[in-house]
Here is the input.
Amino acid sequence: MKKMTINGIVTQVEDYWSILEACRFYGIDIPALCYHDGLSPGGICRLCVVEIGKGERAKLVTSCNYPVEDGLVVRTHSERVIRARKMLVELLLARCPSSKTLQDLAAKMGVQRVRFKVKNENCILCGLCVRMCAEQMGAKAIGFAGRGKERRVTPPFDIKSEVCRNCGACMYICPVCQLRCQGPEPPNVVCGACMNVEPVCLQDNEDVMCYLDTCGWCFKVKSSSLKKKSGYGKERKEGE
Amino acid sequence: MDEDKIDEIIGCHGTDKSELITILQDVQAEYNWLPPDALRHIAKRLHVPLIEVFGIATFYKSFSLKPRGKHLVRVCLGTACHVRGGPRILETAERILDIKADETTADYEFTVESVNCLGCCALGPVMVVDNEYYGNLPPVKVERILRKYGHTSSSSSTSIKEEKS
Amino acid sequence: MNRRRIKSHSDLEKLRQEILAKRDLQKTRVAICAGTGCLALGAQKVITSFKEELKKQGLENTVEIRETGCPGFCEKGTIVVIYPEGFYYLQVQPGDVPEIVEKTLIEKEPVERLFYTDPITNEKAIYEDEIPFYKNQMRLLIGDNINIDPKKIEDYIAPGGYSALAKVLSEMSPEEVIEEVKSANLRGRGGGGFPAGRKWGTTRNAPGEPKYVIVNCDEGDPGAFMDRALMEGNPHSVIEGLIIGAYAIGACEGYIYVREEYPLAVENTSIAIEQARDYGLLGRDIMGSGFDFDVKIFRGAGAFVSGESSALMSSLEGKVGAPKPKYIHTSVKGLWNKPTNLNNVETWANVPLIINKGADWFNSIGTEGSKGTKIFSLVGKVNNTGLVEVPMGITLREIIYNIGGGIPSNKKFKAVQTGGPSGGCIPESFIDTPVDFDELTKLGSMMGSGGMIVMDEDTCMVDVAKYFTDFLVDESCGKCVPCREGLERMSEILTDICEGVGKEGDIELLEELSVVMKDTSMCALGRTAPNPVLTTIQYFRDEYDAHIEEKKCPAHVCKALIEYYIDGEKCTGCLACLKACPEGAISGEKEVVHTLNTEKCSKCGICYDTCKFDAVIIR
Ligand SMILES: Cc1cc2nc3c(=O)[nH]c(=O)nc-3n(C[C@H](O)[C@H](O)[C@H](O)COP(=O)(O)O)c2cc1C
Ligand code: SF4
Ligand code: SF4
Ligand code: SF4
Ligand code: SF4
Ligand code: SF4
Ligand code: FES
Ligand code: FES
Ligand code: FES
Here is the structure.
């Protein structure tokens, strides 16, 4: 067992866990789009970032592939973390605005608008399907090709692979396949605002006050004082 | 594609997976591009999943999965060449050959590519045709150089204009 | 050539004496640079002409021709130096050869017109140390290039090459070597400036066998060619450093990773490895010490990101050269998960110097935090372009003006870009900054591998930011979201700004995006990618504003924001532009003022270059 601090609470964790596994064990919700139990971590979406270390040396690391260490100090919902996650979701959503998974995630994190040009791709390159195919199905029928903005998921030579088993596992696991409801909003607006439970105490306290997932309780208490805060909260207010 | 030829190349390097990139480089040197059947054969011989070979062949810039022209025109767009007008050299070459970068003329005579620095930055802007370097190149000279390699300006606007004057 | 194995330190010394004995130092020698730059300018023809001419004159046995490595002044190639006199000829053409042979080799008279001429005073410089470009440098690493034929190991051994290796193997323990490099405070020259001695120590102490050492000659920074010059011009200095490092670290296998755009470096290094092996400087029982080590050369396949340590190692393993998550450093778990030490070409080349001359000597050069010299590739809008090796701590002004000779055509200096795509643009107000790792970082740029691109008033800073961003859009591996998506969005916004459709808030969005890219990208490419954008915003905000608010490009670079027209006052009606215009946009008759049809004009700029009367104007 190892001892580490998560959001101010000292915890006991298994030696082989990642930070994400430790946090999940203690019931802390961290968005992890490219992670799936039973598959190796991808480290691709970067949504699972948490802040470790203190002061000058504090940095963000991806919790899904960072092994737990004795004495590690982890903050899962610091201001810096939230700012990063929101921007990442906005970037992903600009690429695939019709994904229900992304829409819900965005709504939950309080991202209400996409400031980039909307692209309508059908893949966020999270690599879940590639890992599923290789690690669970043992087929290695699909993979990444190209680099930079040309990167894509495809079978060899972009034609159906001879080794594909038609098992459908890749489609089952894809977070983008499920489409959002065709609501009245244009694609650069996030629907599902009903799910909007932003970690609001953050803007006052720099950290969430509770070590569990954000409950929104403090929102009611302090909503009046929030208005004067500037920064990324601004867009949200404009959208309101 | 000639399987024996590829086997010969594999023979020089062995079938360890770490030789994959070197083998692909040699195959590309032989054919000027990577024919799909060659990739399939290499994947089989090295016991590497085909998708991995395909991933590598599309990741690195020096590999081409399309046949390339007889003459390879490479224009440097590295920083040093960029500030000295590299993009204009590329535009000029593209206009003269009537293709875009990374394309090949219909008669498979010329392929135009951009590169990021060839190591003779002090001579920028630099263009390389096959293995001949042309440094300190003003855009107006590009056409003359391409003509040396057999380009005829039959359809380009240049010829029309020359009649006019 | 048949070479005997060198079995000890004294064996090496004996060999050296034999080489020297065979050489007549008074014998006339023609050193011709055969580096990539000069070859591009026709050095091969110069060499052939010399050979023919000497034969014609019956001098082929009394005059030696040496095809050497790059001394750095490539712009003025082909470079030919005549020894023992030391006459330094620049821009030699094959046609000059008969005159050189006639006048200099036979009559011992100089050919004046081939000397360096000062553009202002018109004074001639006869010897290397009189040329301002060289005079103000400190050439510890590349100074010897003009004396060495990289294809002949004897040329390296003659002035004392491999003696550092001999010293290490016969007198020093591996720990002592690491101590020496540590106390020399040698910092990595590949970009980050990480202390080399500490890295070596980590790899030495890491569990796992075998251990590997690697030379990083991927040199992805576009516009930089220091590593090319070293690797192709003096490969043995790098190999000697590598063997010493391997001994200190306890590695028995090494790799030299050379980018494939450098075919000559690949060739010369392969020959060098072969020759070192022949002498028993590589392979089993090196110099009779019992230490085994060998090295293989690997050609990169064209990917900037593969210069990053974990990506480079993936490449060597025969995989896609993309970075891996690195909570465990490659010094501990690198190539095939074994402890692996990766250093830049220049870092390795410094090692023999440190061993020979000692850590104290090395510490006497440079600044508090950065010791020794650094080679920069000084290019762009500067009079003397080429490689400059200078002590750390020299100011940017000294490099650009004293060595580089200032900005051509009396234009105004605007900025200098250091650190390549990870670095930033430093404006004129900081031109007196001493150049070292820490000072450049403070300015928001970085040392990087040593690219130094000078920009004048005709350079648009938004365009520069866009250039680097676009470079990285293509070169990012595309694995992680902030870097792949972030860069593409950055490029999108910058393109909008350059095309005159930028809007208020764009700059703030760029800044916001930058913070997140720096915070969350997986590797240093994404984490440093915003630097060119951030520094140009910081120092040249007014240019951004001009593009966004006034829809103007002050430097007349961004095509969408400029227009060509012909000034009727100046135009002589010479027809030159009309003939040159590829779009047929110019009309007129002989000796009548021409007119330019903006509708048809594609803004290619050819008429601007063609007009001898400055009558084509950009507004
Ligand atoms: C995207 C990227 C590209 C790099 N390219 C190079 C390169 O071309 N040459 C190099 O020496 N180091 C390069 N580096 C730095 C290497 O990762 C590594 O730090 C360096 O080779 C270590 O050597 P040093 O300690 O001697 O500097 C690059 C790093 C990154 C992130
Ligand atoms: S359907 Fe084919 S590609 Fe998809 S997981 Fe199954 S085997 Fe792989
Ligand atoms: S297809 Fe779906 S699962 Fe596969 S990489 Fe794209 S988004 Fe991820
Ligand atoms: S930061 Fe960029 S280059 Fe590095 S791993 Fe992520 S996508 Fe690849
Ligand atoms: S800029 Fe080019 S297209 Fe326009 S008038 Fe001049 S030569 Fe013709
Ligand atoms: S080249 Fe200059 S001077 Fe001659 S016609 Fe054109 S604009 Fe007039
Ligand atoms: S879940 Fe960790 S990076 Fe995607
Ligand atoms: S930038 Fe063009 S050769 Fe280096
Ligand atoms: S290549 Fe000859 S001086 Fe650089």
